[in-house]
Design brief:
By secondary structure, this protein is mainly alpha-helical. It has two domains: about 160 residues, no CATH class; about 90 residues, no CATH class. It has seven helices and no strands. It is flat. The N and C termini lie far apart (about 145 Å).
Length: about 350
């Protein structure tokens, strides 16, 4: 059967090659004959300046023929069908080729010419249909051959599977017998091993219990030490927190005390300035120390240079100079009037 399958496959491939070569030979000859026949007809019915376009029409029609033949071959090999449109295109291109080839002879009432020029288109049409039928038949034969080979292969596989199953059954019975003997031996050995393992397990449990007791004692000791350490840490943090609060409270009290002292100093300075400036304008020039004290008080109160000059009895230029000195002295720190005599 295998040899017959190889012969059939070779014959099928040879038939396919012969069909393909013959089909394309007929298509090429028909295309060439169609171009040579239709081009003069197309040129005769085309304006002179467009005569060069005459070969386009047969080329287009013959290109459609090539598409039909090629795609029909592919679809037939796949065992499918393209539907009604490929049939329409195949017959439409065949009729167009036939009409174009016999048109010139028909217009001239040349029946012999019509018959002669109809040979190539009709041969092309019939070859396309016949080639399609042949390819479908070849595809069906290939499928049948593949199905037959598949069935034979499956039958051989089933027979081999049955032989393997029978061998496996006998081997399984032998293994089961051997396994039963081995199982009895293993059960005896397992029983002895189990008793030994139980004794060892009891010894290990005792050792584990002692180990767990030691670990529990060590863990309790570590936990106690950890609690004491945490307690010491909390006590240290509490003392540090109290010390920080005490330092903050002392700093706050110191700042409050300094603020009160500064306010008292400012109040005393304001009172002294008010006392110096309450005397009013002076007609006589006061002593320089007293004049400087009045000028410093007037500058601190934001009085004008002229008002300060009226209060101390000195000239406006002298007072302006003192104002400038006061502004430049000690980076703007006010003069302490308590140290200035009248």
């Amino acid at each position: 059967m295998a040899g017959g399958g190889r012969v059939n496959a070779v014959q099928i491939r040879s038939a396919e090659r012969a069909l393909s070569a013959g089909t394309w030979l007929i298509v090429a000859g028909a295309m060439l004959y169609s171009i040579l026949t239709v081009t003069p007809l197309a040129a005769e019915h085309t304006p002179d300046k467009w005569d060069w376009t005459a070969p386009i029409l047969p080329l287009v029609v013959d290109a459609a023929v090539v598409i039909v033949v090629r795609l029909d071959a592919v679809i037939a090999r796949l065992g499918g069908s393209g539907g009604p449109w490929p049939i329409v295109l195949r017959w439409m291109t065949g009729c167009m080729t036939l009409a174009l080839n016999v048109a010139d002879s028909a217009l001239n009432n040349d029946l012999v010419g019509v018959a002669v020029h109809a040979v190539a288109p009709l041969l092309l049409i019939v070859t396309a249909e016949t080639g399609l039928a042949y390819r479908r038949a070849i595809t069906a034969a290939v499928l049948a051959l593949d199905t037959k080979e598949q069935a034979e292969r499956e039958a051989r596989e089933r027979a081999a599977t049955q032989r393997r199953e029978e061998s496996a059954r006998r081997a399984r019975e032998e293994r089961e017998h051997t396994a039963a003997l081995a199982r009895e031996q293993r059960e005896h050995e397992a029983r002895m091993s189990r008793e030994q393992a139980e004794r060892e397990a009891a010894a290990r449990r005792e050792e584990q219990e002692r180990q767990q007791a030691r670990e529990a004692a060590e863990r309790a000791e570590r936990e106690r030490s950890e609690r004491e350490r945490e307690q010491r840490e909390r006590e240290r943090e509490r003392r540090e927190h109290e010390a920080a609060e005490r330092r903050e409270r002392e700093r706050t009290e110191r700042l409050e005390r300094e603020r009160r002292e500064q306010a008292e100093q400012q109040e005393r300075a304001a009172q002294e300035r008010a006392a110096l400036l309450s005397a009013g304008p002076c007609t006589d020039k006061l002593p320089e120390d007293d004049a400087r004290a009045i000028v410093a008080a007037a500058q601190a109160e934001g009085m004008s240079v002229r008002t300060a000059a009226e209060l101390c009895g000195w000239s406006v230029g002298w007072v302006s100079t003192r104002y400038a000195e006061l502004r430049e002295s000690v980076n703007g720190v006010p003069v302490d009037l308590s140290t200035t005599g009248r």
